[in-house]
Amino acid sequence: MASIRFTDVQARPAEFLDLTSLTLDEFQLLVPPFEAAFHTHMASWRLDGKPRTARRFSVYQNCSLPTPEDRLFFILTYLKTYALRVVQGCLFGMRQSQANQWSHVLLPVLLAALHTLGDAPARSLAALAQRLGVSAADAATVVAPLVEEAAPVATGPATASASPLLPMTGPNGGSSAPKPLLHRRGVIVARKRTTLSKMSCSSMRCSSSFSSAIPMAVASMTSPLLTRRRIPCPPGVGCCRIWAS
Fold first, then answer.
1. Angle, helices 68-81/96-117, rounded to nearest 10 degrees
2. What is the C-alpha to C-alpha distance for residues 37 and 147, in angstroms, rounded to an integer?
3. pTM above 0.70, yes or no
4. DSSP letter string, 50-72
5. DSSP string spanning 176-243?
6. CA pair distance 130, 136, nearest whole angstrom
7. Cβ contact 128:114 at 8 Å
8. Beta bridge partners of 45
9. Which tens digit of pLDDT belongs to each residue from 189-223?
10. Enclosing H/E stretch for 33
């Protein structure tokens, strides 16, 4: 299966930037901490998410992502394009299940690498103000438009010190979609009545056809002697019994 690799696009900086949102120099700075975080993660966990108990992790020759650059390129491309796992697997020459496993492994690895470099996204106004070296009020002016846009979908009031920088949606409640008409009680009762009426009509047709067939059957079973007519004797002739068939 054809696949895309880091070496295929590193000579095209514009395309590489479109796929990863990073320049080649920024990408190369991220590779060492990313690979270190990857081996730290794989020392305790397997690729399928289960704890590692016996064999030490090693990169096989037939690995879908054999180099550190390919692994980082894989997860950055996924975050930039947010493709379906089956599409991501087709891009990198692997099955959908493998793309799902690699995504679950490399996402926390990338976050750990960003924390190591001090470039992890800030999750609160206090953390953002500390990173920018400004006061919390000055940091609030930066994220105020995001907070206002997130207000219609917020499930409850948020304090200024713990307000998220990204719009967060509340948990899904019960479905507000109208109940299908076929599942309403009145429709179910009417449907049962219609079924019963159809059954009664079909039984009446069967009984009428059966009753109409009875005289024909009786007639066919009647003796031919009972259907003959008697011929009267002529005058002056002794009585005789002549039957006409």
1. 100
2. 33
3. no
4. SBP-SSPP---TT-SS-SHHHHH
5. -SPPPGGGSHHHHHHHHHHHHHHHHHHHHHHHHHHHHHHHHHHHHHS-GGGGPEEEPPPTTS----EE
6. 8
7. no
8. 51
9. 666 776 666 666 555 555 555 555 455 544 445 45
10. helix 24-42
